[in-house]
Amino acid sequence: MSAAQQLPDRARVVIIGGGVIGTSIAYHLAHEGVTDVVLLERDRLTSGTTWHAAGLMTCFGTTSETLTGIRLYSRDLFARLEAETGLSTGFRPVGLVEAVGDTDRLEEYRRVAAFQRRLGLDVEEIGVAEMADLFPHATMDGLIAGFHVPGDGRVNPVDLTMSLARGARTRGVRIVEGVTAGDVITRPDGALPRVTGLRTSAGDIECEVVVNCTGMWARQLGERHGVVIPNQAAEHYYLITDTIEGLDPNGPVFEDPANYGYYREEGGGMMVGLFEPEAAAWNLDGIPDDFSFGTIPPDWERMAPALEAAMSRVPITLEAGVRTFFCGPESFTPDRLPAVGEAPNLQGYFVAAGLNSVGILSSGGLGRVVAQWISSGRPDVDVTGIDVARFMPHQLQRDYRRDRVTEVLGKTYAAHTPGIELVTGRGAFVSPVHSEMVAAGAYLRDVSGWESADWYAGDGQTPHVTPSWGRQPWFDAWEAEHRAVREAVGLIDMSFMATFEVGGADAGAVLERVSAGHVDDEVDRITYTQWLGPDGGIEADLTVTKRGENDFLVVASDTAHGHTLAWLRRQIGDADVTITDVTEATGQLNVQGPLSRDLLAELTDADLSTEAFPFRTARTITVAGVEVLCVRITYVGELGYELYLPRDRTGAVWTALRERGTAYGLRPVGLRALGSLRLEKAYRDYGHDIDNTDTVGMAGLGFAVDIDTDFIGREAVLTERANPRHDRLVQVLLEDPEPLMFGAEVLLRDGVPVGDVRSASYGWTLVGAVGIASVAHSAPVTKAWLDEGAWEVDIAGTLHPATVSLRPLYDPTSERVRT
C-alpha cells in the first residue's frame, strides 16, 4: 500500500517525526485514550538521530523536579515495556558511576544527590576504592569521590523506539513512513490562529493538533510554521574499540566529566563517548530533508585533545584497536533545556524537541507529559522551565545559533558552579540606561536576552567574579546595595520586565475574567494578581494597572514574557481587545527604600504623601522634567515607586535621580540585591517559587484573589478553600549565618524530608540564608504543624537548623510598605 493510501483524511492528532520522542508521544496518547492519531515519518523510524544515540539511561544530574520525574518514569517504562509489547527495549540496569575530580563538582553533586534522593532516586556517594571495584578499567588518578546509581544503565534506542511504536499501533495509532510534512493549515480563532490540518507529500490531512517531534529539523520546520524553536545541530562523537578480553557486558556506565568522557561496554568492546569543550555546529543553514541514517566526517584535529583526555581515563582503550569512530549530529537549545508545549502563537501546535543529547533517557517521561497535556489541555508537571514559549525570534539568527550551540555543548560536562555565565549570544536587548549602568561598575548578566546589572562595583570600577560555592569579595557590594534599600534608597533598572498595553472596548471585561483579582476597578490603580487555569493552576503572576477607561498596563516577569502574552491572547476570543508589546519601547526605573519619597519629592511637584498618593496608586506625573507613570508599589518590601517612561528619556531621569540621590544615600542596585530583598519579604517569583502546578492557596496568595469576581479558575479556588491542599509554600531562614543556599536544598522536619527550597539568597537584614520552599504533609499545612517541628536544611549532605514560617519574617504586617 502506498503512503497516500495509508494516510487518512483526518485525525485528531498528527505527530511529525518517527524518532523515540514521536513514538513515545503516540504510545502515551493511546494510553490516554486518544487513539485517533497519525504519526508521520519522512523516511523510516529512527532515521534521524535516534538510531545512533549512545543509549544511556541515567537519571543523575539535575535539580529539576520535572526533569528528574521524566527520567525516573522513563527508566521504569523501559523496564516494563517488553511485557506489554513483546519487543525488548534492551534496557539493562547495570548502574552508573559518576566520577568527581575536584571539590567544586563534589559540592554540586552532593547537592544534586540530596535533591534527587528525596524524589526517589537511589544514589550514594562512594570512595575511590569503591569506584575502582565497580569499574576496574579506569585509572583513579586525580579522582576524589564518585556517585553510584545502581538502578541506572543502558537501553537500545532502536529497540526502544520499535517497542513504543508497536505499543502505539496495538492501541490504534496509525504510523505512516515515507511521508514528508509541509505547511500547517490554520483558521482565524480570536487573537491567535488555530491548526486545522497539515499538508504532506501524500496529501492534506485534517487535524486538531500537530506535534513537531522532528529533532534537529524542528527549527526549520517550526520557522516554516511561524514557530520559534531555536535548536541547532552540532557534531557529536563516540568510538567503539575492538573486542577487549574480560570486559563485563553487565559492567556499569562510567562518566568522567572532567575528562569529557562516558564509557560502557558495547559488543565486547568499550564505547568512549565525548562531550568535548571545543564543540562545533553543523549545517547552520538547515538539515537536508534527505539526511537519513547519516554520519558526519570527523574533525580529527579539533577532537584529538578531548579524545586523548577521555581515553587516558580508561587506558585499556588506548591499547585496543578502534572498531568504529562515529560522528553524527545532535541538536541543542540555547539554554540546554527541552522545547516543549503548545506554541505561543499558534493554537493546537505542540513541540517536543531540543533534547540536548538526553532524548533517549527522557523519551518515556516526556512522551507521557506531552500526551497528557494534549489530551487534557493542561500539563500535570511544572513546565515553566521547558515551555517553548520562552524562546525569542533573535535566537533563530544564524550567528547566534552558531556561537551558542558551540558554547552550550562545550559546557555539557562542565561543573555548574554559581557565578558561571554564558558569554555567547549576549546583548540582544540593552537597557535604555545600559551605558549609565556600565559607568557605575555593573557586573552584567543575561536576563532573557537583556543585559542587566547583577551588582555594582562602583563608579568607574571594573567588576570581577570568580565562580564559587562560597562567599566572594563582591558580596560586600551586594550587602551595601541591600542595606541601601532597607535603610535609605536604591535605584534599580528593570526595563527588561515584560510590558504590554491592553486596550479596546472589551479590555476591562477580558482582564477582569482572566485575573483572579479585581483589576477593572478605579482608574490610576495597580493590582497585583494571578491568572489561573480552569483547574486553579497559576499561569501568570503579574500586575495590572488601570490607566484609564479601557486602558491597562500589564507587567510580568521577563521569563514569562512569551507565555503571558500567549495566555492573554488565547482568552480574547471575539472580544474587542488590542495588545501591544511595549517592552522594548519602555524604560522602568524602581526607586525603593524609606527615603524614596523624599528623593522623588526633590524632582517632582506631585504630592507624594500617603494621603495623596497611597499604596497602589498609579498616576502620571513629571519627574526631572519627564512625564512618567509613577506607581507606588514594591517588590522589595519597602516604601517605593516604579517609574515607567519612554525609552529615550530614561537616561535623563536616571542621571537626575543619581545626582539628587547622593544626599539621601542612594545606590544603584542590581538583581542580586533585588533577589535577597524580595526573599526576605517572601515575595514570589513565577517560574522560580511558583509554577503552573501551584494554586493561590498553596502559594499563600489567597489575599490577591477577589472571589466576588467571575474569573477563570474561580470554582477551583472555592473548591480548594473548602478542601485545602496538603502542600504549601513557606519561608525558610537558616539559624547559622554562615552557610549559603542556592535553591534545590532539601528541607527536613524532625529528620524526615518533607520538601525542598525553590529559590534562595542571603538575607543581609535577617542575617542568614533565606529562601522559599515547598513542604508537604499528610494534612493541610498549618502554623501549628510548622511550629511543632524541628526544621533542618540539607546542604550538600550537612544538616543546618532552620526557622520555617508561613508569614514573611521581615516586616510581616507590611507596615513599611504602606506608610
Automatic annotation (TrEMBL):
Domain FAD dependent oxidoreductase central: residue ranges: 377-428
A Pfam family assignment: GCV_T_C
Domain GCVT N-terminal: 434-708
Aminomethyltransferase C-terminal domain location: 728-811
Ranges of residues in domain FAD dependent oxidoreductase: 12-373
Family indicated by similarity: Belongs to the GcvT family.
Protein name, UniProt field: Oxidoreductase
Protein species of origin: Knoellia subterranea KCTC 19937
